[in-house]
Specification:
alpha+beta, 6-stranded mixed β-sheet, 4-stranded antiparallel β-sheet
């Protein structure tokens, strides 16, 4: 499925569902198909760069359970036998609940139906999947930024007034500090350089890139028009349009967990008219698992925003609650 674009995958799914539909029944995508489509839609997810080192133990319609791999507790052996087991020291299971489901319900007019259902449905459902994916990204990064503020890991640095070289040096400095983390309570004994992930706002990326300090931009990805940079001072860097409060965020590839679920993707008739409607319903679970492992760089001090809200590209008054 990796070589398929989301639009082609949606079109193929709709065509197959229409062919198997019994007359009089509504057209709906089955669970396995919905899972495949959201997997494609999230393939280039930026937030999921922070979840690659997190093991999911169990997933249900209501929550995901993940493993927080911690360090071992070492002691001098003074007696016979293995001693007392340190419960949950190595792997601590954590449960993250899915937010309340969100949905979109869009009309398909009688005229549109004359164009052919797959042709009409494909762009509509594709757009819904993309919008849902962007809400997952925006909400997840909002929560990550709030975690930075809660952990007091803000770094006051005005990128607007700095040169590209100064920004580069600051990013490398803070990323290297992160690799030197020793946190006995959480079991962190240094962090490998390849585990560090750096996100920068697109304008910050452009400022650095124009100075020739980083390589060429790669092909624009589906998930939101972001560009990635393979290396910056030995660290993996992504241009991130979903950052809000911080110009630069530095973290690890195991700091978080996330999951998305498409609950329904149906086409139904809108009685008493001949018009049809496409209905999309989904939910996601997202959470930051580790304390003090994410640093935010911005000018001045920031305050937590939009807690327990799903972030859409809409006015403040139209925000959705997560609980």
């Amino acid at each position: 499925m990796a070589e398929l674009t989301l639009k082609k995958a949606v079109g193929d799914a709709i065509t197959l569902a229409a062919a198997n539909k019994v007359a009089g029944e509504m057209l709906k995508l089955e669970e396995i198909t919905r899972a495949e489509l959201i997997s494609i839609a999230s393939d280039k997810s930026l937030f999921n760069e922070l979840t690659k080192g997190t093991a999911t133990l169990e997933a249900s319609p209501y929550a995901i359970t993940v493993s927080k791999i911690q360090g071992s507790k070492w002691e001098e052996k003074t007696g016979v036998g293995a001693g007392t087991v340190d419960k949950f020291r190595i792997s601590k299971p954590l449960t993250i609940n899915f937010n309340k489901p969100i949905y979109a319900h869009e009309a398909i007019t009688a005229f549109e139906q004359t164009l052919g259902m797959p042709e009409v449905l494909t762009p509509k459902l594709t757009k819904m999947l993309q919008e849902f994916q962007k809400m997952y990204e925006r909400t997840s990064f909002k929560d990550l930024e709030n975690k930075i503020i809660k952990d007091n890991k803000q770094v006051d640095f005005d990128v607007a007034s700095k040169t590209a070289k100064e920004i580069y040096e600051k990013i490398v400095e803070e990323a290297t500090k992160l690799t030197e983390t020793i946190d006995l309570e959480q079991g962190i004994d240094l962090i490998d350089r390849e585990q560090v992930v750096v996100f920068v706002k697109p304008l910050v990326f452009d400022k650095i890139a124009t100075m020739g300090l980083v390589g060429d931009r790669v092909t624009e990805t589906l998930a939101g028009g972001q560009y990635s940079i393979v290396q910056l001072g030995g660290y993996k860097v992504f241009s991130n349009p979903y950052l809000s409060q911080f110009d630069v965020v530095i973290s690890t590839n195991f700091v978080a967990a996330g999951a998305e679920r498409v609950i329904a993707a149906n086409v139904e008739r809108m009685a008493p008219s001949n018009d049809m409607a496409v209905y999309f319903e989904g939910a996601f679970a997202t959470g930051v698992l580790w304390d003090n492992l994410t640093v935010g760089i911005a000018n001045g001090s920031k305050s937590a925003q939009h807690e327990n809200e799903i972030i859409q590209a809409k006015p403040e008054g139209e925000r959705l609650k997560t609980s």
